Amino acid sequence: MIGLVANLSYGLLQGEFDWTFGWPDLGAFLITQVLAMLGGFALAALLLNTSAAIVVFFRYKWVLPGLFAVAAALMGWFEKLAPWIDFQSAQGAIWDWSSSGKDWAQLVVSGIVWLGLPLCFGIGRILRAEVK
After folding, report:
1. DSSP 34-95
2. Quick one: angle between helices 76-85 and 101-111, nearest 10?
């Protein structure tokens, strides 16, 4: 509903409406949403506390990319490291359908850091937890 109102408002102000949303964009949207849900599940499994996982997820999703950008701007060495550990910006390769192997490698490496490791440690915690 908000998208409809925003697009109509834009069309009234600019004189043109654009409702195009192709299959590649739909595919990218679905992939990034699955990655976001997997990230939330990984944090919940790691922390074993729903409220803490929600807070950490939103910090990881919205605060951490800004901190990475500030750190990259202030420290030259971190500018080269940031694309390899910033999972949010690495997902740009999905939206662009980049053919660069480096972009996809950065997505895989940052995905291992932010999805794979928390998920492995979280599943380990769940398997060792005592059934109540």
Report:
1. HHHHHHHHHHHHHH--HHHHHHHHHIIIIIHHHHHHHHHHH-HHHHHHHHHH-HHHHTHHHH
2. 80
Q: Give first-to-last CA distance, the chain, whole Å.
A: 44
Neighbours of 58 (CB within 10 A): 12
Percentages helix, strand, coil for the chain (3-state, rounded to 5) are: 85, 0, 15
The pLDDT tens digits of the residues spanning 72-106 come to: 999 999 999 999 999 999 998 998 887 788 999 99
Is residue 129 within 8 Å of residue 48, measured between CB atoms?
yes
Residues 6 or more apart in contact with residue 91 via CB below 8 angstroms: 32, 35, 107
**SS3 of 130, please?**
coil
